[in-house]
Amino acid sequence: MSNQVFAQLVDAHYTPLFRFALSLARREADACDLVQQTFFIWAKSGHQLREVSKAKTWLFTTLYREFLRGCRRDQRSQSIEDLPPSAQDMPAEDIDHARRMDADQVVEALQEVDEVFRAPLTLFYLEDLSYQEIAESLDVPIGTVMSRLSRGKTQLRKIMAQKEAGSREDGEVVEFPKTKKGGVK
Amino acid sequence: MTNEEAKFMLQGYRPNGADAENEAFAEALAQASRDPALSAWFEREQEFDATIAAKLSNITAPAGLRDSILAGTKLSSAPAEPSQSRAWWLRPWAIGLAAAAAVALAFTVNLSEPETKIAALPGFDPVLKVALADYGGAHDKGVHANDLGNFGAWLMDENNRLGADVMPVNLDELRQFGCRKVNVAGHEVFEVCFQRESGWYHVFIAPRESFDAEAIYSKPMFHESGEFIAASWADDKFAYLVSGTTELATLRGLL
């Protein structure tokens, strides 16, 4: 019975956990290790959780803690977080950039967002957790989550725009401006 | 709330609509509906967020990860049995006491701050909070529906539908034998626990006049929080709420 319940738990959560882990760890093998380790910890100590309805939040929390255990937060992320929130509105092109990218490119862009913003941003885009649950999972105040989401989105848009511009430089055919006579300047 | 504050709030609104019932967004959403510029910004923000979320949902886990988790865990340690399979009221007393304290707090919050609604069940928020607290383990040990004679038998009969049929409710009997009586905003609310093939349910019953006539509906209204699910409705005499941990379709079948 308990094996069956455990398998159901794995089936329900391993894919979103993998997506979250991939955005954090950047390498597929490391992401798999994180997911595996998270479920291993559940098997060892998940019984301490009184409410199974909290399992999802617990799993995301545990995965994130395992990730943090394996790396140090860098100083740069901290200093960026201290900046005031961006008040810039989103240009319409940002949506077009996002549409033109495939899933792997979007994950690559997410992976380049500073880690302190990346975790809440990825959890937000997985759409499994509310912002309150994200705060609980990452053990930060709700206001901090909202602030990190705001800054994380700004970073993500910039990275996506840079990638888009880079891909043009890398070989996309761009029409040269023409002279009045119709030739190339 | 300024537009900047509304934007700060709304950028945390998930594009799949999962936050539609989250009261924390209500003020910012209302502001967006009144302000065309804010509304246009929100529309673009949601479009961008939906695009990213859709791309992310296309990422699949590597083949074999699931089997690797199951096999690896089996080798390392046997998975622990979750406590959820136990009936709510059979949980340790310590949890019950903690949850009872939560109920008291919930009522305090509800009575002093009526805007802190937790669900879209008009007029039923206080009762819903009791049901949620039950789910968290607040229900005392004690008499259950099988001690309620005819009414208990009626509830446990798989053929009876709570919403469609007229339930044989007798307040005097409930006062004497109901699983629990709670005082909600000065009104008596009776709780009866019963079991069907699909699981355990708690039904809460209160005289209809205890509620604002405009805030209760004869047609069932549903609330879902994770695996907790509830429905409320009313007939000519009483208002009802039934809660459980079953599927929405199963709960609908009960009504």
Summarize the structure in words.
The complex is a heterodimer of chains A (185) and B (255). Chain A folds into 2 domains: 3-74, Orthogonal Bundle (Rna Polymerase Sigma Factor, Chain: A), CATH 1.10.1740.10; 90-170, Arc Repressor Mutant, subunit A (Orthogonal Bundle). Helices cover 70% and strands 0% of the residues of chain A. Chain A contains 9 helices and no strands. Mean pLDDT of chain A is 76; it is low at 73-87 and 170-185. Chain B is flat and about 60 Å long. Chain B has a 6-stranded antiparallel β-sheet, sandwiched between helices. Helices cover 41% and strands 17% of the residues of chain B. At the A-B interface, helix 1, helix 2, helix 5, helix 6 and helix 7 of A face helix 1, helix 3 and helix 4 of B.
Q: How many β-strand stretches of chain A?
A: 0
**On the 0-100 scale, what is the average pLDDT of chain A?**
76
What is the count of DSSP helices of chain B, taking H or I runs of 4+ residues? 9
Radius of gyration of chain A: 20 Å
Low-pLDDT residue spans of chain B: 77-120
Q: Tell me the structural class of chain A.
A: mainly alpha
End-to-end span of chain A in angstroms? Answer: 75 Å
Structural class designation of chain B: alpha+beta
Identify the CATH homologous superfamily of the largest domain in chain A. Answer: Winged helix-like DNA-binding domain superfamily/Winged helix DNA-binding domain
Low-confidence stretches of chain A: 73-87, 170-185
Count of extended strands of chain B: 6
